[in-house]
# Entry
Amino acid sequence: MRIDLHTHSTASDGTDTPAELVAHAAARGLDVVALTDHDTVAGHAAAREALPAGLTLVTGAELSCRVEGTGLHMLAYLFDPKEPAFARERALLRDDRVPRAQGMVAKLRELGVPITWEQVAAIAGDGAVGRPHVATALVDLGVVPTVSDAFTSQWLANDGRAYVDKHELDPFEALRLIKGAGGVAVVAHPAAVKRGACVPEGALVELAAAGLDGIEVDHMDHDAPTRARLRSLAAELGLLTTGSSDYHGSHKTCELGEYTTDPEIYGEIVRRATGAFPVPGAGG
# Structure
């Protein structure tokens, strides 16, 4: 089995629609794909409807958190999307995205960039607006050559001149909400140094003690020594280890299925979940 447990669609900051994403996953030879858009489940219904035969959909979301001043992304799998407490918090996270993006546009205009909110909103469409949409606008304006080049201290990185903070969950609260909705919690790319400051390993130790299920080890932003270190840490803490592409379509260079999760670990994730079940494709 080929299993990719971290992907994004146009429901957040990917470039494939949910229907295109599941079709692409099937074409890439995947057996299981998780749709984990940022702070939203808006793409799940369309992905279900278009799910090809032979492909299983895992519903999920990637939550924005912060611990000890450092950003942390937590993947939530197979939770009940209607559970009220978790649904309210996801709404708060989503609603903060618009004023945050507008703040970045304002800072960029102060820096002399002729960007407009209307331009960014059009790029985001119906998706949850985020930095990649602002970055795409910078590419369209010729300010930077690629989306990745916008994520520097010059522009949109965490220490960048146009960066704006956003509403973020305490990861222990996120863990409580995920578990309360019957889901499974995995910290995404915890040692992605290219993104800025990394999640402190002490925080992972504390989260493991609080019920964290796993950490994402095999990821494009982790080199071989980092993966080995994280795998060793997971073994010490009794955590599951996953592998995923973190696919965003044309916003990133990685491809679906570039990194995958062991079938036994996937089976354990499914076994632990009580909020939802994987959706088998029936040729929609």
Q: What stands out?
A: The mean pLDDT is 93.
